[in-house]
Amino acid sequence: MAGHDENFKDESGLLAVVLGLVVLVSMSALPATIGWVQYFA
């Protein structure tokens, strides 16, 4: 069996929060992005 490391920090929670914020901001900015693409195209 693997040994228990007392100094191990689980960063998956922080990664999930950061990923959630990125998705939230990108979804709210999506209509503006589509508008800019249609304007310049």
From TrEMBL:
Keywords, comma-separated and alphabetical: Membrane, Transmembrane, Transmembrane helix
Locate the transmembrane regions by residue number.
12-37
Spell out the protein name for this chain: Uncharacterized protein
Question: Can the keyword Transmembrane helix be found in this entry's annotation?
Answer: yes
